[in-house]
Amino acid sequence: MQIEQLKKITVASAQEICTLAIAGGHPLSAPDGASPVQFLNQLLIAKEVGKAVQFLAFALPAREAVWWACLCARAEMRDPLPEPQLAAVSAAEAWVRKPTEEHRRTAMSCAQATDLKSPAAWAAVAAFWSGGSLAPENLPEVPAPPQLLGSAVASAVMIAAVSGEPKFAAQKRARYVQAGIDIANGGNGRISPA
């Protein structure tokens, strides 16, 4: 499948996104002059789905990226789900619906109540790292470095892919990338069933 556009991704250069990804610990390298659409198509043609996940995690705007992380986390939730994980993904979704400072900080509180090993926890961390200060409210502001958001989203999506039945991780990553592309084009990103 050839991608024609990524409406929500406003950065013109794939290399600019890769620079952010590298700062976040994800070694991506796009050819000089490649647009995000061109580079993502190259990754998909080469079946580099893991790198496509990383690229989208750093390319999507904050709300869209956190929403994608939430969808992937929800796709892997199985009953009985531990309450802290449910609270974490719900807090991240609340931030997506209404990105207030209160929702951002609540998301991090909920993430910290987990073991930080679930996609739900990392979706909540992504909401917190989306902007604002990393310091407690009563201390001087410490801006979130821009690469943190993409790192948390990539973590959420990749952990979701290996959750449950790891033998299906490649197929799940492919479905998640399609959902991310849908979100990048203004869709709701609903993940297709296996």
Can you give a write-up of this model?
By secondary structure, this protein is an all-alpha fold. Helices cover 59% and strands 0% of the residues. The chain has helices at residues 14-23, 36-45, 49-59, 62-75, 83-97, 101-112, 119-128, 147-162, 169-184. The two termini are 18 Å apart. The model has no long low-confidence stretch (mean pLDDT 95).
Short description:
The chain has 194 residues and is mostly helical. It contains 9 helices and no strands. Helix 3 runs parallel beside helix 9, helix 4 packs parallel to helix 8 (147-162) and helix 6 runs antiparallel to helix 7.
Characteristic terms for this protein:
194 residues; mainly alpha; 59% helix
Ordered list of secondary-structure elements with their pairings:
Elements: H1 14-23, H2 36-45, H3 49-59, H4 62-75, H5 83-97, H6 101-112, H7 119-128, H8 147-162, H9 169-184
